Amino acid sequence: MIIPQSTFTSQSKPLKVVGGGNFTAILLENGELYVAGECMLVSGEKAPGWHRIKGLFLDVACGWSHIIAVTSKHEVVAAGIGAKGELGLGSINKSHQFERVIAVQSPNAQVFACFYNSFVRDGRKLYGWGSNVKCQVFSPKSKTVNSPSLVYEGDISNVCVGKNSVCFIGDGIIHAQGAMNEYLPQMRSKLALSGNLELRSMWTSITAFDHKDFRFFGSAGQMQDAVTSCGQLHVHTVSCWSTGSEHGVMCCGNHVYCWGWGEHGNCGATSVANAASVASGINDQSNIKSGVNTVYVTPPQEKVVGCFGGCATTWICIERTGF
Asked: Do you know which PANTHER family this protein is assigned to (predicted)?
């Protein structure tokens, strides 16, 4: 689809929307978790649409064919396909239900995933597992790491995970392991570490935002860096932003913008889109390499409370008032 469609409604605010290869997960503020698409947790369900997963959760992340989460009981669980160790369950590489991977100590533990890797930040410890072909978990490289391995211990923030890479701030220093390591000198020289700095990962890049300027590190063949040159926008008004597989999304005031690789309609329609596509919402592939493009403008009775990028999908969370 190239025009935003209403797909999910709830009385509870969405905290996080994350995408796997062909599925999406939504975590609500009340701890409920819903999935849609080709997710093994609901592979037996014939009805399309959203399916609630039993239990309550604190965080969730998706790789290409797997999903990991932190439960309300402070356990990291995983399900799906993990041929490269991304489930973290040892010799088990497929599960139709959540299986316990590790218990966490921090009440604010987070999970991260992309393609064939999973990471957990548990207080001052960062664990990782899955593919290690680029030394994204540890050195020397290996094909698989099938159980949690300590990546870093210290004061950790801003963890973001891309294809074969992990980036984070550890003890006041930016770290990048795996495929993004070649950009580490640039990041350390160009980024001023502050409490406002935020890092987000696409598959093959890192976008940084300090609420004054956007900076980009990585491959930009599909205009993934377009936000760094959007001089017509007042980026200091950004209320929320995110990155997807190879695109970005942000909200400024009552406007939502996307940029980057929009092959599947995830960067919205431009003025060159044909009328039939705009009317139906069906993608006519008129905006594949997208500059910073307006995808949604909220009417007076709506407020954007979150925006998220999935796998070639964009998610805008709206709070409606006055109904």
From this structure: REGULATOR OF CHROMOSOME CONDENSATION (PTHR45982)
Angle at 260 between CA 256 and CA 263, to 5 degrees: 100
pLDDT above 70 as % of the chain:
97
Mean pLDDT of the chain: 94
Q: Residue 129 domain-assigned? A: yes
Query: Diameter of the chain by CA atoms?
Result: 58
Integer Cα distance of 323 and 88 in angstroms: 46
Asked if the model's pLDDT at residue 275 lies above 90, the reply is: no
Q: What is the CA radius of gyration of the chain?
A: 19
Q: Beta-carbon neighbour count of residue 149 at 10 Å?
A: 16
Q: Which residues contact 62 (CB under 8 A, 6 or more apart)?
A: 18, 19, 20, 23, 24, 25, 68, 113
Residues 139 and 240 in one domain: no
Please tell me the distance from the alpha carbon of residue 89 to that of residue 129, in angstroms, as a whole number: 10
Residue 44 lies in a domain: yes
Q: Are the CB atoms for 168 and 152 separated by under 8 Å?
A: yes
Which of 103, 128, 153 terminates a domain? The answer is 153
**Cα 304 from Cα 323, distance rounded (Å):** 16
Range of the structural domain that residue 258 is part of: 221-323
Both 117 and 244 in a single domain?
no
Q: Would you state the structure tokens that stand for residue 289, as one six-digit string?
A: 């390499």
Those residues whose C-beta lies under 8 Å from the C-beta of residue 31, and which sit 6 or more positions away, are 56, 57, 58, 72
CB-based contact 290:25 (threshold 8 Å): no
Q: For residue 122, what are its two tokens?
A: 């548990």
Q: Give the list of residues 6+ apart from residue 175 with CB closer than 8 angstroms, or none.
A: 152, 167, 168, 169, 184
Q: How far apart are CA 123 and CA 255, in angstroms?
A: 36
pTM: 0.95
| Residue 176 counted as domain residue | no
pLDDT tens-digit profile of 192-211? 998 899 999 999 999 999 98
